[in-house]
Amino acid sequence: MPDLLRIGALVSGNGTNLQAIIDAIEKKELEAEITVVISNKKTAGALERTKKHGLNGIYLDPGNYENNREYEKEIVRLFGKNRVQWVVLAGYLKIITDELLSAYPDRILNIHPSLLPAFTGLHAQEQALKYGVKITGCTVHLVEAGLDSGPVIIQAAVPVLENDTVETLTERISKKEHQIYPQVLKWISTRRLKIDGRRVSILPSSSPSGNEIINPGGIV
Amino acid sequence: MPDLLRIGALVSGNGTNLQAIIDAIEKKELEAEITVVISNKKTAGALERTKKHGLNGIYLDPGNYENNREYEKEIVRLFGKNRVQWVVLAGYLKIITDELLSAYPDRILNIHPSLLPAFTGLHAQEQALKYGVKITGCTVHLVEAGLDSGPVIIQAAVPVLENDTVETLTERISKKEHQIYPQVLKWISTRRLKIDGRRVSILPSSSPSGNEIINPGGIV
User: Fold this and answer.
1) Which of A10, A202, B41, B45 has its CA 20 to 30 A from that of A90?
2) Nearest CA-CA distance, residue A201 and chain B, Å
C-alpha cells in the first residue's frame, strides 16, 4: 500500500472544487484520499457529492456549539479521528480560528477567486468587475490568521472580457481553480512543496510529467 | 496631412517607456507626435533620448517654483503652447496635483509595474517578490487624484519565477510595458478608447491589424 496523503475538507456550498479534487483522485492523477468532509450547512451540494462518491461526509451544526472556537474543537477532533494530514477549504464560508490554525500549522489550504492580494474577502469577481481590471484569476494559498493573506502557492490568470458578468467571469475563473487546486495537492503528495516564510517554491519532480501547470496564464 | 495625436510626456528617469513610444512612432505603427517632453530631473536619461530623436525636451527645475501646483501651472502652460492633447507619464516620480488633472481630465496616462490594484506606489516589483505572488504584471491606467487608482485600460501578466530578483522581474515586466503603452496610444489615436466611469472598453477596429494585444498574458 502506498502512503496516501490524507485530506480533510471543510465545505459550505456546492463543492465544485472538492469535486475537482475527487476527480483527480479517481483518475489516479493524485495519490490521496479524502478521509472526511465536514459541512457547516446541512443542504450543501458538497455533501451530496461525498455521498455519491462514497466518502465520509458530515454535517456539523454550528448551532450546537457555543462559539466558533468550540465548533472548531470538534472539527479538530473529527480530523484527528480520521487521521487528516492536510486541510482543504473548499468554499467554506466561516472564519478560521486559532483552534484549527494551531492544530494544522501551515497545513491548511484555501482557494480564492482573485489574484491575491487584490480583491480579498467575499464577492471577489464582482469586486474585480467593479474596479475594471482587465486581468484577474485565482490563488491557492496557505491559511493564516489574516483574511486571504497567507503565503501564495500558485496563481492562475484569466482575462476579463468586455461583456463579462459576475457569472461569466466566475465560470472562467472556476475552470482554472479546478486545475490548480488538485495541482497543489499533487505537489504536497509528492513532497515537492517547500515553504520558507512567505516564499513557497516547488521542488523539481523526480518523475516529470510534462503537463504540469506552474504558472498558468503567466507568459514571459 | 493626417491629424496626428499630440502627446506631451513627463519624465524623471531613464525613459525606456518613452523610448518604446518613440520607436512605435518612428516605425509608423503609431500615428502620433511627441510635441514636448518635460523632465523634473536635469540628468534624466529620457532627456538624452529626446535629444537623440530630435524631440523637444525641456528640463524644468522644480526648485524655481514655490510648490508643486506652481510647477504644474508651468507644465500646463508649456503643454498648451505645444498643443498637447494627451499626457503620458513615463517614469515621472512626482505626485500629480489638481492643476494638471483639471487641465487634462481623463487625458493623463500612467503605467505601473503591477497588476493594479495590487502593489500600488513605489517599488511594486519588490513588493510583489516580498508578498510572494506567482503572477504579477503591468497596468496602463488613467490618472486621477488617488494613488495608482484610476480606471484601468490594459494589463499584462508575467510569471514570477523561482529565482527572480527585483532586477530580473523588473526586466520581464518592462518588456510587457513596452508593448502595452504604445498599444494604448494607438487606440487613442484611432479613437477606439471608450471611457465610461471605471469601465474602459476598446471599440472594434475599422481596419483590424491582426496582431493587436488586448489581454496579454490572460488566457481563457
Assistant:
1) A202
2) 7
A41 and A140 assigned to the same domain: no
Residues B118 and B177 in one domain: yes
ipTM score of complex: 0.91
Q: Is the peptide bond before B117 cis (omega within 30 degrees of 0)?
A: yes
- Which residues in chain B are contacts of A133 at CB distance < 8 A? 115-117, 152, 155
Nearest CB to A135 within list B119, B153, B157: B157
B116 reaches A (C-beta below 8 A): yes
* Mean pLDDT along residues A31-59: 97
- Helix (H/G/I), strand (E/B), else coil: B7: strand
Question: Residue B26: is its pLDDT beyond 80?
Answer: yes
Is B53 in the active site?
no
Per-residue pLDDT reduced to its tens digit, B80-125: 999 999 999 999 999 999 999 999 999 999 999 999 999 999 999 9
Residue type, B172: R
Identify whether residues A34 and A70 lie together within a single domain: yes
pLDDT at residue B2 tops 90? no
Residues A159 and A217 in one domain: yes
Tally of CB atoms within 10 A around A131 = 18
**Interface test mutation site (partner A, options B135, B144, B180, max chain A beta carbons within 10 A):** B135
Catalytic entry in B53, B112, B123, B141: B112
What is the pLDDT of chain A when averaged over all its residues? 93
Residues B198 and B179 occupy one common structural domain: yes
Q: In which domain, by residue range, is A65 found?
A: 1-105
User: Vertex B103, ends B98 and B104: CA angle to 5°?
Assistant: 100
- How confident is the model over A43-55, as pLDDT tens digits? 999 999 999 999 9
Q: Within 10 Å of residue A16's Cβ, how many Cβ atoms?
A: 16
Do A12 and A47 contact (CB within 8 A), yes or no?
no
The reply to whether A100 and A119 lie within a common domain is: no
Which CATH number is B100's domain given? 3.40.50.170
> Of chain A residues 44-73, which have a CB less than 8 A from chain B?
none
